[in-house]
Amino acid sequence: MSGELLINVTPSETRVALIENGSLQEVHVEREARRGLVGNIYLGKIIRVLPGMQAAFVDINLGKAAFLHASDINSRLILNEENTGDQVPDIRNLVHEGQYIVVQVVKDPMGTKGARLTTDITIAARYLVLMPDANHAGISQRIEDPQERNRLKSIVTPYCGEEHGFIVRTAAEGAGIEELQHDAEFLRRVWAKVLERKARRQTKDPIYQDLSLAFRVLRDFVGISLERIRIDSKLTYEQLVEFTSEFVPNLAPVLEYYPGERPIFDLFDVENEIQRALHRKIELKSGGSLIIDQTEAMTTIDINTGAFVGHRNLEETIFNTNIEATQAIARQLRLRNLGGIIIVDFIDMSNKDHQRRVLHSLDAAMARDNVKYSLSGFSALGLVEMTRKRTRESLEHILCDECAVCHGRGYVKTVETVCFEILREIVRVNRAYDADKFIVYTSSSVSESLLNDEYHNLAELEVFIGKQIKVQTEIMYNQEQFDVVMM
Predict the structure, then answer these.
(1) Contact 319, 351 (CB under 8 A)
(2) Under CATH, what is the fold of the domain 415-486?
(3) What is the CATH number of domain 41-199?
(4) Do 263 and 271 touch, CB atoms closer than 8 A?
(5) Could you report the per-residue pLDDT of 325-340, keeping only the tens digit for each?
(6) Is residue 24 within 8 Å of 268, Cβ to Cβ?
(7) Would you name any one GO CC term (predicted)?
(8) pTM of the entire structure?
(9) Which helix (H) or strand (E) holds 207?
(10) Number of C-beta neighbours around residue 441 at 10 A
């Protein structure tokens, strides 16, 4: 499948759009003030050990403590044991408060959760991944040809030693001796620098920081045939030319500087596609729709038929809608970068063959995703459960903030509800305090309702308490805001 990368660079933000067959498939956003931490290596300090959770909190100078589970600690190195078995040792035998430890971020902070850490350090280059705690060469499982696996292993094994080993990445399939040697030497220089900073007790900054987004995508888009990479920043373009010539020479010919007056993300309608990816409802071409709800615990996707009517019967309509939905679901998960637990509520199908074909269609659509996923069959309730690996924030969490009006509920109280709350508040205040009259400050929609639709209720309340009630519009108030002031 052919692809094209559009790279939009400003001093404060870098955005990358992956286009496949003329359609936006992925969006990556990195803001300079909030650069992703995954891959960064820190010399952290254990600030708290939690035996009940088999975990520790680690200070890596981010303001929020990071999380290190016992299962993510290389116990063989810490306990000097050749084989600790399958059972995870007690966290108290692995680390203690005040201890300095080299850790790597595997998950960015999300919401109230701190970064997730590991002590199994890895540093990636184009073809190889350095493993400081190993002494052998491993080959990616995606390289299936036995002869190629043996060839790569024979090339890389001599570069392994007591201090580190290597994993051969999928992109190395067909790579020559010089390319692999260059990667191995580069990674060894990087690791030497990490050890130097560790010896200096560098704790304020990372002792290793992963590449910025524009460079990282060139390294990580493995298996995608890129026809063109367009960059709208002259400086970044020149830096990428230098980077690709050294590390990714096969991409050097497709790099292009884009000087056009039209914004680069207006090509392929990228800006509008990003806006649509923030909507809860996604319309299908047939008239059906997806409803996508993202929560901290999971993402749920509901499929509706809408106006789609089949030519034969209802079962055909349902089946065709579900099939179309599988393609849209796979694209939206990729585009929005939704991860974790995902529950898909397809329209109920009584035909088992239809269920099997819908599941196969979803699996085939997800197979184009570079992110690891797992898919289960239909549950007894007709739901499909799946997971998608999550290592960075979703598009919604990067671009959006919690609504200041509804505070994340996704809805606001009706005008009628707020009116009745105001009437009850007046009664409560009147019983508690001695006042001559009341002034209600509220939004324009609520004040209009109080003076029109609810005027008879307001008048009855004035008679009931024997006091005047004045309504005043406060244009800065949202629909749920109001104040009852005693005079």
Answers:
(1) yes
(2) Hypothetical Protein Ychn; Chain: A, (3.40.1260)
(3) 2.40.50.140
(4) yes
(5) 999 999 999 999 999 9
(6) yes
(7) cytoplasm
(8) 0.71
(9) none
(10) 18
